[in-house]
Amino acid sequence: MGDIVLAGSTSGTTTLTPAAVSGTTTLTLPATTGTVALYANPQITTYTSGSGTYTTPTGAKYLVVKMVGGGGGGSGGGGGSPSTGGTGGTTTFGTSLLSCTGGSSTGQISSSQAGGVGTVSSPAIGYGITGAVSAANGIASAVASSGGSGGASPFGGNGFGGWSLNAGQAAVANSGSGGGGGGNANASGYIGAGGTAGGYIDAIITSPSSTYSYAIASGGTAGTVGTTGGAGSVGGSGIIIVIAYFG
Amino acid sequence: MIRHCIIDTNTNLVVNIIDYETEQTGVPIGLEEHLLCVKSDTGQIGGNYANGVIINPPQPKLIMLRAAL
Q1: 3-class SS at A128?
Q2: Are A49 and A157 in contact (CB under 8 A)?
Q3: Which residues of chain A lie closer than 8 angstroms to B44, CB-CB?
Q4: What pTM does this model have?
Q5: What is the ipTM of this complex?
Q6: Residue B66: inside a domain, yes or no?
Q7: What share of residues in chain A are helix, strand, coil (percent, to 5)?
Q8: Which of A97, A157, A164, B48 has its CA 20 to 30 A from that of A243?
Q9: Number of folded domains that form chain B
Q10: For residue range A130-155, what is the model confidence (pLDDT) as tens digits?
Q11: How far is A94 from chain B (nearest CA, A)?
Q12: How many Å lie between the alpha carbon of B51 and the closest alpha carbon of chain A?
């Protein structure tokens, strides 16, 4: 077996070398005009803030996109008028293509919480997960109780509820998880609910376009403390991870 | 990070919240022309933007549930 050497049109050469094994192997070229792509490592692009335009790398065959919306802020605890945590922003990729709305907070622990929603639209395919709700960490009495923990996104990093007079723990940046609710030490007060998680998406875009707009959600604001309690904490901001595959 | 509200100029409502590393004005980078970027620490989604001020929607009604003894 020998090499085939192709001389360049102006300079240089390309050598085709068969594998050093016995037997017969066949290399069949595609019946189309174009450039044969060799294996290349996937190219990963991560966005953690702001907005802008993603440019699909030359030669990319498909994109895998993982993204999450902003987590809801934890609500304040205590008596009087603690405030509700803010709703997280919406993370988007493409125009009306991929969208993850933010988590929210209901003020005090309740059963009516709702996480953010992940929506995958054609031609993208994949699935969206609704954000997890806050864990109710309140114990027997409204006195010296712990606020609710924030709901966790698939990235984790949710904030724990604060105990008694303590503020809840902030969710980790770019986690999309909820912030912790404030504690309560007021006999007439209530613990703060944690924020719910933002919606999550795992999607594939085949035959990708040349560019896509994107926006990264902010986490929800923290709820303020009431009387003899703890404040809530901020939710985690969103993130987009784009993996371009060439093979 | 600097918190910004994204305003839909067709409705003057806050439609998103985005953090940027630097203060932004005008159309948000990479997004549609009918959107406006306004720095705000307190604006919330659903808030109304008029004369440079964002008026937030009413807070959701608090649901008070005392934990069982």
Answers
A1: strand
A2: no
A3: 86-87, 221
A4: 0.86
A5: 0.86
A6: no
A7: 0, 30, 70
A8: A157
A9: 1
A10: 999 987 644 435 568 889 999 999 99
A11: 9
A12: 23
